[in-house]
Design goal:
- Helix 1 packs across helix 2.
- 15% of the residues are buried.
- The mean pLDDT is 85.
- The longest helix has 9 residues, at 16-24.
- A hairpin with a 2-residue loop joins strand 7 (89-91) and strand 8 (94-100).
- This protein has one domain (2-100).
- The protein has 2 helices and 8 strands.
- It is mainly beta.
Length: 125
Amino acid sequence: MKLRIRGNTLRLRLTRSEVDAIGRGDAVSEATTFPDGTTLQYRLVPGAVRHAGQNAGDGGFAITVEVPRDEASRWAQSDEVGFSGEDAFEVGDLAVLIEKDFTCITPRAGEEELDTYPNPNIAAG
């Protein structure tokens, strides 16, 4: 799962296996450890409501996004790119986008794309 933050927009991009996990009702998470040992963890959790929250602890900082379990299951089985269509959903002043991760059109060094969705903008060769 990739995390992108820009201003008050939080974007999570999920691989195929992560979308499958969410569709089954399982949480997915990633963590980034900084040089001082502090960790940033981000999680997507199927639950009851649309919610985003954060907390700080001794070892770092965590961001948790919750989405309704039944909506997550439908999205995982659909061909929709975004969890709530093409638009973000709002949690207070925060806009949250959850998307399926596509293969990049232009390959980038160090970018791992083994479990991504085929990009519909890449012409079949």
